[in-house]
Design a protein that fits this description.
With 171 residues, the chain is α+β, with helices and mostly antiparallel strands. The strands form two sheets. It has a seven-stranded mixed beta sheet. Strands 2-3 form a two-stranded antiparallel ribbon. The protein is globular and about 50 Å long.
Length: 171
């Protein structure tokens, strides 16, 4: 049974993602075409090195984040990391992943709902998501109610030029 918990030093440390399977086979991505986005065939494999996993673990453990875990026993199989500090009235969904073998089980939906609750509690007008442009990732966020924003946060959009900048209202 998968359970969702607020991340703490009791259930997570910098090594908790060492066995996490970030791997994602991407076939199509969204790219800006004039005034809209179009799917473009651009196959690649997204994966994280052990060093990247530990850096992400340290990030979501930091005081800058509110994070939730999906746990299978004591094993972290998913997480969401939200920046505590609001930016332009938005709570930034900075990191969200579900381990490869645990996808399509509703875990991402549960984590995302926790993110929306935290954003609402913080008084944010919406969650702000700089989303990987893969077809599957965008389909997930759209299914959660997110839409592409016409007014992106410049520094976030500039930092990830191929991401799609999305918002999801929390009310």
């Amino acid at each position: 049974m998968i359970r969702i918990e607020l991340l703490s030093e009791n259930n997570f440390n910098e090594f908790s993602l060492d066995t996490f399977e970030r791997k994602q086979e991407v076939i199509n991505v969204y790219r800006k075409a004039c005034t809209d986005y179009a799917l473009v065939n651009m196959p690649y494999t997204e994966d994280w090195s052990l060093e990247k996993k530990r850096n992400v673990a340290r990030d979501i453990l930091s005081e800058d984040y509110i994070s939730y875990l999906a746990l299978d026993g004591e094993k972290a199989v998913g997480f969401i990391g939200l920046k505590k500090q609001l930016t332009e009235g938005f709570m930034i969904l900075d990191l969200m992943q579900v381990s490869a073998k645990y996808r399509k089980m509703g875990i991402g939906r549960k984590l995302f709902e926790m993110g929306k609750l935290e954003a609402k509690k913080a008084g944010a007008k919406a969650l702000y998501i700089s989303a990987c442009s893969s077809e599957e990732t965008i389909a997930f966020y759209k299914a959660m109610g997110a839409v592409i924003t016409d007014d992106p946060i410049k520094e976030i959009a500039d930092d990830e030029p191929f991401d799609l900048q999305m918002i999801c209202k929390v009310d």
